[in-house]
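Re: dinuclear copper ion structure - here you go.
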Amino acid sequence: MTRTRLRLRRFPVSVTLVALCGLAAASRAQSIGDVQKIAQERGLTTADLLAAAKTYLPSGQKDEYLMFASGGHAGQIFVVGLPSMRLLRSIAVFTPEPWQGWGYGVGDEVIAEGFPKGKANLWGDTHHPALSETNGEYDGQFVFINDKINARVAVIDLRDWETKQIVKNPLTLSDHGGTFVTPNTDYIIEGGQYACPWGADYVPISEYKEKYKGSVTLWKFDRTRGRIDRDNSFAIELPPYWQDLSDAGKLASDGFFFMNSLNTEMATGGIQDKKPPFEAGVSKNATDFLHIIDWKKAEEVYKAGKVAMIEGFPVITLDTAIAEGLLHVTPEPRSPHGVDVAPKGDFIVVSGKLDPHVTIYSMDKIRKAIAGKSFAGSDEFGVPILDFDSVVETQIELGLGPLHTQFGPDGYAYTSLYLDSAVARWTIGGSYGSQTPEPDWTLVHKTPVHYNVGHIAAAEGDTVSPDGKYLVALNKWSVDRFIQTGPLLPQNLQLIDIAGQGTNAPVIYDMAMGVGEPHYAQIIKADKIKAWSIYPEVGWDPQAQNINPMAPKPKMERVQRNEDGTVDIFMTAIRSHFNPEHIYLKQGDRVRWHITNTERAVDATHGFAVPVYNITASLEPGESVTIEFVADTPGTFPFYCSEFCSALHLEMMGYLMVEPK
Ligand code: RUQ
Ligand code: CUA
């Protein structure tokens, strides 16, 4: 004890010494000559130094933007600061994550809420994050994300960056064209992908055309509760094509959303029987269909009760959708991928990965074609087809494998070119015309990226008012960009400076993403997010986003045996102890372990970890959690705080003793 105190008292002395040395170093003259010397030694060009100056953040300075990137089959969201490209946080969503204490005693019910067909599923495949919007602008309140593998949607509250809800789509097991939100976040839209029989029930693939279904689900969002409101959500049946990426209309196209599709051939594969494999059958036709859906009309139809209950969920059937005139399609170049609505909502940009052009549709022309019923027939299911020439504005040849488009504030649009490994900058015409020095609808420049870019994300680049400045290329392959990390390589997220015009759009940073495979990302101005630094009050339940009256308080710590045979443990945590420290249980006890972190200091997080019982929690200042388990294994279990919270962190522990029967 004395020795500890001694060491503690001496600590400030060494701190002072370090500070003095630092001062001495700083006072030595530094000049641009030093920079030149290092640049020469390291072989850095002026462009390299400029890139460093644009991205480097001195210690303590903060990023201007936050990028919310999906985590791919890591099942999480990753948050990166721009321009530093530092990974700031992962947010545990579909996959249990021990550091955040997600899914090991806390959050288990949220994850279980989304179990498909009642089976435990402990990962997700996140693709498309969507920040909540007000009037088509990100408002910084929530972020949503889809899980492609099991067709689920998650809600994350951006006050505490915790997942609050996971909903399982009752109709299908496959989604992709989501999540995206309507301009005021009335609905979170989840488009399906691989056609499935309703409820993914067993149906042989020979009955594909009759029994397999396409669909899109409109999840009603209740902003006050911060939850999806299942009781006011509905779906629309679509033909059994594979619906792909989607985007919501805004301003000129408000009230509509747009969904690509592939496999309008309705190919069913069968390589094992020498039938054409999916990869051939799915791209046989020269065109697929862009779905144009009037969701405001769909909402009226749903509210009028013109729905069928399928798997206990209200569905506007394909026949009703056609009869009510809320669904139209128009041809688009084969096997398209991205569809993106321009900031004013007047143009819809589609990229077909097998076509070197982007195809641009005019909302004005679409509205006229719908009103004038200028149909070029209908598809096999009776969906009216808008004549391509009557709705298309123009096509621009950009290069090989165009996938996704983002926008700048200045009449520039950006499209990723997967096969070219480049990001194309081109000019939009119409009402955007003459905002750039170049003529309208022209390819201006291609920035090479490394390699095989999928999505791109520009600062506020899919809102009604993009910021320009930065664009991130989310490259699928990194090949030779980083030190070999075994045969599994990180992805390469490249920051591109798009503040300049014309051919001035250089790559200024390479960020290795070695924890997952992000697909889409959205970039928001950092000051729009009003994140809590500590929970508002001691005893806060993050699931209720309110104080829990049952939360343990100081002086009320105890172990309570109830008449029904259950045990409640009321525990507090503060630097550097738990109270109580001795817990006696009997084998078979059903336990509710309530813990409150009573700290009010920023970053004073405590962990709570119990061996054998697979329990780990993260208790942020003010937070209270309840962990339920059955004490089925007798023994002596030293539990401890797993977060290095203080000098006496090692001593922050206790013993759980479970007496055998
Ligand atoms: S995908 S790389 Cu969004 Cu899922 Cu296009
Ligand atoms: Cu609390 Cu370590």
